[in-house]
Amino acid sequence: MERKCIHCGAPFQGRMDKKFCCDDCRTEYHNKIRRQREKGLREINHILSQNWRILSAQLRKGRRRISVSELAAHDFNFEIYTSMRKTFPGRRIYGCYNLAYRISRTGYVHIFPIFEG
Ligand SMILES: [Zn+2]
């Protein structure tokens, strides 16, 4: 019975349950599905690593306090973080891997390492 490959569309002969014309098509098809599935993961990882680079660059310069607007100018994304902890009402500490920050009411971001010796 003639069937059509679900990856390249080429006709082929084979069993009813066969979906691909060759092994390469089967591999490429599954790789494509995996890449699409992992796209969201890569996008979030990209934002997190960019945030981490921005925060650690400040710490390297010895700056533990930076204004929200300056951080935003560096394209810091405030919506994505690795953890969030509420301390007392109205105060939150955000984690970005091994770094943490809190945002004060006066519009400043205080940065500190989570694992501080
Ligand atoms: Zn094919």
Beginning-to-end CA distance, first to last residue: 70 Å
Count of folded domains: 1
- Which radius of gyration do the C-alpha atoms yield? 24 Å
Order of H and E elements:
EEHEHEEEE
Biggest sheet record: 5 strands, antiparallel
Percent of residues in beta strands?
15-25%
Unreliable spans are: none
Shape: rod-shaped
Strand arrangement across the biggest beta sheet: 3-7-6-5-4
Ligand identities: zinc ion
Based on secondary structure, the structural category is alpha+beta
The number of helices is: 2
Could you tell me the number of beta strands? 7
Whole-number mean pLDDT = 93
Give the SSE layout.
Blueprint: E1 2-4, E2 11-13, H1 23-60, E3 65-67, H2 68-73, E4 83-86, E5 92-96, E6 99-103, E7 108-113
Antiparallel strand pairs: 1-2, 3-7, 4-5, 5-6, 6-7
Bound molecules: zinc ion.
Task: Provide a brief overview of the structure.
The protein contains 2 helices and 7 strands. The longest helix is centred in the middle third of the chain and has 38 residues.
Task: Walk me through this protein's architecture.
This protein has 117 residues and is α+β, with helices and mostly antiparallel strands. The protein has one domain. It is 38% helix and 25% strand. The protein is built from two helices and seven strands. The protein has helices at 23-60, 68-73, and strands at residues 2-4, 11-13, 65-67, 83-86, 92-96, 99-103, 108-113. The strands form two sheets. The chain has a five-stranded antiparallel sheet. It is rod-shaped, with a radius of gyration of 24 Å. The relative contact order is 0.11. The mean pLDDT is 93. Zinc ion binds at residues 5, 7-8, 10, 20-22, 25.
